């Protein structure tokens, strides 16, 4: 019976791994990592990249535009994005795993727009980078201190880290920033740390942080949280140390200012708002 409940919980998690973010349907981050293929859009939003720009975006991050075959291989293990992007050789398309009325014409597979004669058309990009340096992990301890890779040395370029925290059901996660120094950028697009009040990087976006200002404490609304740290191809900084501790769910009568959902204070102090 217990095993059954546990299994159901796993399935539920799997279902939760799908969701909309910035108007784009994303799949689980785990699958996205496994494939080495990822979706990129312009800093100014969806469908803004010419072929040359899309190529440059991937190369800037140490990869290259994904081939049709690479995108299809990623799709086969669950990579699903509802946004057309440039692939190698000027091809445009997007990977659909789950058929839906709103995306992919109700079919699964690569929705293929073919090789575009006009390379000035603007789409997103699908990059392939099997050498992206991965880091992070899953933590279930009652407390832990996360450090950016290499800390106390500076972190490296091209880093993609996911830390997932899962504590006992009924407990909350209290994040405290001990040190914080991440390449500063007006919209935190170069290097950034994102915090999610959920077990993926889709739901419960709390904030995106960069610079050297110490963010305020954040308290989760449930027993799971995700931290995502991305760095681009140039300029590094000191990095960070973040401690989490667990706390019991406060009783309804105690309405602590800092214990409300989404950590409002922190959201406001984040340099990058929800789009
Ligand atoms: Ca950087």
Automatic annotation (TrEMBL):
Its main location: cytoplasm. GO terms for biological process: cell adhesion; fibronectin fibril organization; hyaluronan metabolic process; negative regulation of BMP signaling pathway; negative regulation of inflammatory response; negative regulation of neutrophil chemotaxis; negative regulation of osteoblast differentiation; negative regulation of osteoclast differentiation. Residues 248-275 are annotated as: Disordered. It is found in: Cytoplasmic vesicle, Secretory vesicle. Residues 248-268 have a biased composition (Polar residues). GO terms for molecular function: calcium ion binding; carboxylesterase activity; fibronectin binding; hyaluronic acid binding. Keywords: Cell adhesion, Cytoplasmic vesicle, Disulfide bond, Hydrolase, Signal. Residues 36-129 form the Link domain. It comes from the Eukaryota. Residues 135-247 form the CUB domain. One of its GO terms (cellular component) is transport vesicle. Disulfide bonds join 58-127, 82-103. The keyword ATP-binding does not apply. Residues 1-17 form the signal peptide. Interacts (via Link domain) with inter-alpha-inhibitor (I-alpha-I) component bikunin. Interacts with ITIH2/HC2; this interaction is required for transesterification of the HC to hyaluronan. Interacts (via Link and CUB domains) with ITIH1. Chondroitin sulfate may be required for the stability of the complex. Interacts (via Link domain) with various C-X-C and C-C chemokines including PF4, CXCL8, CXCL11, CXCL12, CCL2, CCL7, CCL19, CCL21, and CCL27; this interaction interferes with chemokine binding to glycosaminoglycans. This is Tumor necrosis factor-inducible gene 6 protein. It comes from Aquila chrysaetos chrysaetos.
């Amino acid at each position: 019976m217990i095993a059954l409940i546990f299994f159901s919980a796993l399935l539920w998690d799997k279902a939760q791994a799908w969701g909309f973010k910035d108007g784009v349907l994303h799949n689980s981050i785990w699958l996205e990592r496994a494939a080495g293929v990822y979706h990129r859009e312009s800093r100014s939003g969806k469908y803004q990249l010419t072929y040359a720009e899309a190529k440059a975006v991937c190369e800037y991050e140490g990869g290259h535009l994904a081939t049709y075959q690479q995108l299809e291989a990623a799709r086969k293990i669950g990579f699903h994005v509802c946004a057309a992007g440039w692939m190698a050789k000027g091809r445009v398309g997007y990977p659909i795993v789950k058929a839906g009325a709103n995306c992919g014409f109700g079919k699964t597979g690569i929705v293929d727009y073919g090789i575009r004669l006009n390379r000035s058309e603007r789409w997103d990009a699908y990059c392939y980078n099997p050498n992206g340096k991965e880091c992070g992990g899953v933590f279930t301890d009652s407390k832990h201190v996360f450090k950016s890779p290499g800390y106390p040395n500076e972190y490296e370029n091209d880093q993609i880290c996911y830390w997932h925290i899962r504590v006992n059901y009924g407990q909350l996660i209290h994040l405290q920033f001990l040190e914080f120094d991440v390449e500063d950028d007006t919209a935190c697009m170069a290097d950034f740390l994102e915090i999610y009040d959920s077990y993926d990087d889709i739901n419960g976006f709390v904030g995106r942080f960069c610079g050297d200002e110490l963010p305020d404490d954040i308290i989760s609304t449930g027993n799971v949280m995700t931290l995502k740290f991305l760095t681009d191809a140039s300029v590094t900084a000191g990095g960070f140390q973040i401690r989490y501790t667990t706390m019991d769910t406060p009783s309804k009568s105690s309405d602590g200012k800092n214990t409300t959902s989404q950590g409002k204070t922190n959201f406001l102090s984040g340099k990058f708002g929800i789009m």
